[in-house]
Write a structure and sequence with these properties.
Number of helices: 8
Order of helices and strands: HHHHHHHH
Radius of gyration: 18 Å
Distance between the termini: 24 Å
Shape: globular
């Protein structure tokens, strides 16, 4: 069966390693997208990315349970393909970052409200059915779109640059984590931190990759992407082995 209906956990537990991988995938998604679009013909690149994105989604949904490599493969494709779509929205359609940020925020809030009314909870610990997982991924996509637009807004429109934005979002990212440690609503603090991972990871990756004239260190999108992908693959491989060992 393509989409199993057994009600078991379909997403990872929220640990320190979860946040590390989330930040890595968002950052490497940014630099990988920039490298592919600027090095190759952008039209076929985006089309191929869309096909891989759809395929990775089917791979994730068909598992019916949390499988590390499937989950993080799709998260990475969300980062890569989502960056391409966000860039098209701004460059091709000339939508200002302030407007797109507001629009994506409205979409995110609407999705969370609908999810809450339909399922009675938006807790990440409750993703144990196909419908809840679909709500989860819809919200993940919305947080990515919002984070992308808002990160570009602070770095370019507001003039903070990549490292200024990285510092800002690092502070903002730490606030919900601190509140969570103090017992503040876990679901609220999780989604607040989750949104910020996108602009934080992308700001750091861009700061490492872009040339000094643009405020970066100039390592290049290719090198940053390759190193990041190797690190991600290694960490996911370790998690995959541990997951299999835990299941016996």
């Amino acid at each position: 069966m393509l989409f199993p209906t057994t009600r078991i956990r379909r997403v990872p537990e929220v640990t320190a390693l979860f946040w590390v991988l989330k930040l890595l995938t968002t950052g490497i998604g940014e630099t990988s997208s920039d490298f592919l679009v600027k090095t190759l013909d952008p039209v076929p690149v985006v089309l191929v990315a869309a096909v891989v994105f759809a395929g990775s989604l089917l791979i994730q949904l068909s598992a019916g349970r949390y499988v590390p490599w499937r989950y993080w493969l799709f998260v990475l494709m969300v980062a890569i393909f989502g960056t391409m779509v966000a860039d098209v929205t701004h460059i091709v359609f000339e939508v200002p970052y302030a407007i797109s940020s507001a629009a994506f925020l409205a979409v995110l809030v609407a999705l969370l409200v609908v999810w809450r009314r339909a399922e009675g909870t938006i807790s990440v610990h409750s993703i144990d059915s196909r419908r809840r997982e679909l709500f989860y991924w819809a919200v993940v996509l919305a947080t990515f779109a919002l984070g992308t637009a808002f990160g570009d807004l602070t770095a370019t429109t507001l003039g903070l640059g990549y490292w200024g934005s990285a510092i800002l979002f690092a502070v903002v990212f730490g606030i919900p984590l601190l509140l969570h440690s103090l017992g503040v609503a876990e679901t609220l603090t999780f989604w607040a931190a989750y949104i910020v991972t996108r602009p934080l990871g992308a700001s750091v990756a861009d700061g490492l990759a872009v040339e000094p004239a643009r405020g970066g260190l100039g390592f290049g999108t290719a090198l940053v992407s390759i190193i990041g992908l190797v690190v991600i693959a290694a960490v996911v491989a370790v998690i995959q082995v541990r997951s299999r060992t835990a299941r016996g």
